[in-house]
């Protein structure tokens, strides 16, 4: 457990000490929140769906956690280039512990980012159905962070150059976000879109956040939690296997 804690603490300290990263990483979610939340608000309201800010704020929180957790895998590429990864791999600890420590570190950073964005949403005018709903929403934030931090670690274990990682992330992350229902309702979609949204893990995270915060569900809490927990276990297992095969 000591190795897991040290690697977790390293990721957390690296994030806290980089003030530029903290500020810049909040820029894109704030842009979505302001440009779409207020720009499309009148259109959404005229269609009889209420406040668009209320609808999309949970999606923006989910997007923030997704981006932060998946891109935590980039840190592995830096560690590979500067030799730190080799030092950790030859240490007298199992690779599973190393992978779990890095994954939990990336997930914790993503949780902090999501919490900051939720605070910004509250300042911008978003209001949950009840303030006691926030702890329930936090559970979905944690699950989203673990799922995609493990996925980022798994992908980072198989790619050796920064350019390749960025291409894969852009090809993977943006579809995950846009197909999750973060920006539009999932009801009455074409059959192909319905299928794509249902195989997107983030869909269940966004639905859980939205349901917990404003009591608007597309599925239900039990299904959302079950899918996220299952995907977390699957991606952690996949990440552990790929990390055990890594070569430096």
Describe the structure.
- By secondary structure, the chain is mainly alpha-helical.
- The protein has one domain (2-244).
- 79% of the residues lie in helices and 0% in strands.
- The protein is globular and about 60 Å long.
Please supply descriptive tags for the structure shown above.
mainly alpha, 248 residues, 79% helix, 0% strand, globular
Uncertain residue segments: none
The amount of helix comes to over 70%
Oligomerization status of the protein chains = single chain
Count of beta strands: 0
Strand content: under 5%
How far apart, in Å, are the first and last alpha carbons?
24 Å
Structural class given helices, strands, pairing?
Answer: mainly alpha
Number of contiguous helices: 13
Overall pLDDT level = 82
Overall form: globular
Major sheet: none
Order of helices and strands: HHHHHHHHHHHHH
Rounded radius of gyration (Å): 18 Å
Number of domains: 1
Membrane topology: Multi-pass membrane protein
Subcellular location: Cell membrane; Membrane
Organism: Acidisarcina polymorpha
Pfam family, one: ABC2_membrane
SSE blueprint and pairings:
Layout: H1 2-17, H2 19-25, H3 27-39, H4 41-46, H5 52-70, H6 74-82, H7 84-89, H8 95-124, H9 133-158, H10 162-178, H11 191-198, H12 201-214, H13 221-244
Briefly say what this structure is.
The chain has 248 residues and is mainly alpha-helical. Helices cover 79% and strands 0% of the residues.
